[in-house]
Amino acid sequence: MLYKQKKNQGPKGNRLLVSITVLGSAGPIRFVVNEEELVADVIDTALKAYAREGRRPVLGSDMNAFFLYCPSVRSDALSPWETIGSQGARNFVLCKKTRTEGMEEVERSTRKGTGNWKAWIHKSLSIKISSH
């Protein structure tokens, strides 16, 4: 018997069942990825699966607004450019990036369109200096 190869086969390599826990959600999202996939692509896939399942809280689709952690291996966030299989783990935590108070204040003042650029720089510098 002859077996036909699938035309849509992805890159060669091992496939992993990953489990991604989203902070504030009821349970993990599980899906299969290639171990050579980039962390950024895994975050994107997780956000799409999360939205498709109608989970709460609503996260949005901007993968740049999230970090992926591997708590069993290391405490810092994974680089979006490393491969998911490089950690040797299958359980991850997806966290939304936090925004600092200074960033929110600067964004609020620039959205309004009020003031000039000198006032904006002075305000952002005073926020940074006062937070230290």
Automatic annotation (TrEMBL):
InterPro entries with a match to the protein in the record: At4g22758-like, DUF7054
Pfam families documented for this protein: DUF7054
Domain of life assignment: Eukaryota
Positions of the DUF7054 domain: 13-95
Name under which the protein is recorded: DUF7054 domain-containing protein
Organism, as annotated: Hibiscus trionum (Flower of an hour)
Highest classification ranks of the organism: Eukaryota, Viridiplantae, Streptophyta, Embryophyta, Tracheophyta
